[in-house]
Amino acid sequence: MDMKVKEQVMRWVFAATAAFSIAAVALICVFLFLNGLPFFTKYDLGAFLSGTTWKPANNIFGILPMIVGSLYVTGGALLFGAPVGILAGIYLARFCPVRLRKIIEPMIGLMAGVPSIVYGFFGLTTLVPLIREMFGGRGRGQCILTASLLLGIMILPTIIQLTSAAVKAVPNSYYEGSLALGATDERSVFRATVPAAKSAEVPAEAAEKPDPDISGNQDKLQDIISQNVPKQESKSQAAAAPAPVKPAPVPAPSAREDIPMPVMNSVPAAPEVDFAPPPEEPPEEYIPPREFDTAPAVVTPAPVNTPEAAPAPEVKPEPANTAEEKPAAEEKPENTAAEPAQTTSAGYEKLSVMSREEWDGILTKVSDALYAAMLEDSTASVNADGVLEIHTGNLMLQGMTANGTQELEKVLSQASGRKLRAKVVGDDTDTAAEEENSAVKGLLEKARRLNIDVQIK
Hints:
It is built from 16 helices and seven strands. The protein is elongated, with a radius of gyration of 49 Å. The protein is 53% helix and 5% strand. By secondary structure, the chain is mainly α. Helix 3 packs parallel to helix 6 (144-169) and helix 5 crosses helix 6 (144-169). Mean pLDDT is 75; it is low at 201-208, 306-310 and 319-339.
């Protein structure tokens, strides 16, 4: 049987089933109406609805007390069952663990399938004596309170299942958005998810969305395939078609012999220094380019004429120019007056020297905890332009100052009380020590090869 025929048959089967259910309900209503219609031809409808006495033996039929009692019992059942059922449904949908939910939900389904006669027997044998003992009096426990409690228990499964389904239908983005705004878990559920479930907007939108029509997709697919597949040529057309002409090969260019080979440069390339260009300042706080007007004056000490003194060996300067490690020949005379501090056009002070004690004092006054931690165990020196060079192996500080040192200069200026220019360079003290150690190791290796005993003191 074709697939379309099967689908059509099943569609008619489902439609017949639905029509049978509707017809059964309609027939019940018609049966009750036809059997009750003769009564209203003999008895007044107004007296029937407003009468307060029910005595069928005396042909007195007043159902007003029954109507009022039903309204009282229904209201009491809602007062008891609605809060408990709604809160239980919210708990199952949002707060209940998965394992416990798998146990509770089937039990609630079983409660919905219990016949009403069983609930009535439970109320007659359990609730009625309990109410009689609790409130006492001359009553027998068969009152509106007992009926309200029993009816509230009966409607609990329906309310719990409806509430749980409505809360689960709300998108999780409502709950997550409320959490992102700072609300707690419970507040997000009761102020964002539950109102959305109460409005029933999400299920209505999902129900109104039409199903896509895919009946003509198969024919469209066949048309697309037939248009894109190339047609096969017959053998006669393939024989009559001219053969493709292959292009002539292009000769490869020959190398010229009169061109001399380039001479390799034996001089090593200059080391690359990772200095980032100064960032552009905003127009309202424009600062001129960082160029000094004049170079700092170089103080040349007077030569000391001593006959026994031998020329001092050339020593490679260390990155940190402290007061203790500075050569005696470079010290200024004590009677020399202090020179006034030179500043640039931008207001930055040009330094001449930075001692270890002065740098430690600046570090102790750094108020920013992050910069204080990154500047720990660092040394400082002053270059020929009067700029403070910070020697550190902290990669985080080097990365933060790669695009500009304005924030670092601001922190150091606040700590020192002077407007300083600064830049961060790598910690090359270890490199110098490694180079010196490598030279010593080379000499020891040569001495070992020549069988010379060398004693290092």
